Amino acid sequence: GGGKGQSDENMYQFSMGSGIDVSSEYPEGRYLAMKVLGSGTYGKVLLCGDAKYKGTGVAIKLVRRDSAPYRKAAKMEAKILRALEGKHGTLKLLRCFEHGGHPCMSFELLGSALSEVLRVRAQNSQAGGGSGTPVGLSSAQVRDVGCQVLSAVSYLHSRGIIHTDVKTDNILLTHGCDWRTAEAAGALRVKLVDFGSALWATEWHPNLVGTMQYRPPEAVLQAGWSFPLDTWGVGCVLCELAVGAKVFCLAHNDVHLHMIERLLGPIPQSV
């Protein structure tokens, strides 16, 4: 994790066990930093206890304070999340604030990503005497998760928003929904997260978008893209959940296009 006295000290203004969002009401900070949940070029996501609600766990996204582009992106992300209001299986934004120069957002705390669920299932298969090969979900679970993700994406699109990065890393189990107990009950409740690269369909679209293994042909070719980008991502996610591994492995653009054609046939000339 990042903290004072560490290599990224100048980039992040927090330390584990200390408070975030100091005010007259919370002189020690409203949120207690407990654990790093994830990190990327944008910054870090922390598990924090919210003093206002008796230490209830929340996720705090701490955006790099040395980057104007990331600050601008954080404002856009917050604007989109406010428009969505956490409805129809989308991530719920609780509030925005600044801490030590960092743009911050607090979110409801969710569980494991579906990519982690698949990884643990493969590990458990190996530990149980299996080959350790990928283990997909049941067809009923794939159908159930698929309906939820499609509902979220359909809702986004109805609001004129494109997520641009639909993948198993960005689909999380709802908090308290441990995948083992969920499997026993046969139900997996999920939410779509990470709207850091989401945008309104009417706004400028960057040529390069999304994560390679989930990119449709038009995005790989940088031939212009729109709402179908998310729909393709959902298709890739459903295949991954069914077989337990990504349908397309990481590869250069020409190889990626070849893999798509080998599986689905020739790419239409119109693309």
Automatic annotation (TrEMBL):
It comes from the Eukaryota. InterPro entries: CLK_kinases, Kinase-like_dom_sf, Prot_kinase_dom, Protein_kinase_ATP_BS, Ser/Thr_kinase_AS. Residues 31-271 form the Protein kinase domain. GO terms for cellular component: nucleus. GO terms for molecular function: ATP binding; protein serine/threonine kinase activity. ATP binds at residue 61. Keywords: ATP-binding, Kinase, Nucleotide-binding, Serine/threonine-protein kinase, Transferase. The keyword Kinase applies. It holds the Pfam family Pkinase. Belongs to the protein kinase superfamily. This is Protein kinase domain-containing protein. It comes from Hemiselmis tepida.
